[in-house]
Amino acid sequence: xxxxxxxxxxxxxxxxxxxSRAFDGVVTLTSRDVPYEASITLREAGKGSDGKxxxxxxxxxxxxxxxxxxxxxxxxxxRRDDPMTVxxxxxxxxxxxxxxxxxGHVELxxxxxxxxxxxxxxxxxxxxxxxxxxxxxxxDGWNFFDWPGASKxx
Length: 154
Prior knowledge:
Keywords: Signal. This protein is mainly beta.
């Protein structure tokens, strides 16, 4: 009986659905991976006709040679099994959202466990347009964090 209970508890821990927490308002995260200004603004965008969660995103890139704003709505695609380490060493659960359109194939991986996302990564493959030359024709990617002392969003 003891082994049965242990297996049941372990199964409920490992196979229970990961909550995809909706957040209120808007959150802006910044990247320090690149030698130019890069930020992403995220907000809840409701659910699609298929009932899947949607997240609106706006990536802003600014350097001395280019300035770009890439925006759209990404739809929930899948949960990630491996947690992401955010600033401060905390582990958070993430989910993958996708958007296919003029921006190309956009994959957004976002912290879904925190009250407001503290991490997001964006990968863009094969954009149909390369706004002001900031995004390579083959694609690009960035990691964004809620850095200590940074703006918390609007």
